[in-house]
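Hi all, long-time lurker, first post. I run a small reading group and we've been trying to get comfortable going from sequence to structure in the token notation. Rather than ask abstract questions, I figured I'd post a concrete chain and ask someone more experienced to write out its structure so we can walk through it together at our next meeting. Sequence below, copied exactly:
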Amino acid sequence: MKNIIVPTDFSKKAQYAAEMAFDLAKLMECKVRIVHRKSPDSSSAEALNKIDSIHKIPAGLEKEIMIVEGELMLSLENMIKSEGECIVIMGSQGKTNAEDLNLGSQAQKAVRLLDCPVIVVNSVVDISKFDSIIFASNFNTEAKSSFEIVMFFARLFKSEIHLLTIDAPAFFNLPRIIVRESMRNFKEMAGDVKCHIHDFPDKSVIDGIEHFVQKVGADILTIGTYGKKTSRIFSGSIAEAMIGKIEIPVMTINMKN
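-- Answer (accepted) --
Happy to help. Here is the structure in token form:
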């Protein structure tokens, strides 16, 4: 990963996201880019002063600060296309305006639109204690590209992975025996990374993921999504729902088609 991009509106949860990004950038030895969408009635100088006062960027960290105008997601999409391998880390909720209330939160839009891993943060995060990662998936062939990124982070954090599928009514078309066999194949893919397989029953996928997070006390939830293809299993709509339901960070990864 070359860059960590941190959108900020100076809210408390944006601060949590920035602090996680700084720690992760040190661990990965990569650059942090802080991005702020300027409102029409404010100046770039004012925004830069706020970034300096609110986000205490550690000395020695490679950094870049960008002030943008217009649609934030469009600016982020263009950055990701030009830069290549990026991670976006952002707060789950921030300051809102009429546009955001009509179109949904910026975090939800990021999950749907951005073609890179997106980590959404709800509270203070200590990555030095990331011992347990949940990968919630249907474990089909398309999910393998997402799982490769999950394995990268598991090795980075020296974490174990909980492979999670939810046994909910009318959710899977495939017989459970086939789903479990696919999960065993993913476990073999992980090689030296310790993995646990969980076929967790619940009344719905969203409830099942939430209850499993509570049960195992994991440090981060990862979900492979299909971005705009919201009709697909484990689509962005499920990831968006989890952002508001659990306290731990949620990382979404758009699957390659």
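A couple of things your group might point at:
The longest strand covers residues 160-167.
Residues 97-104, 229-233 have pLDDT under 50 and may be disordered.
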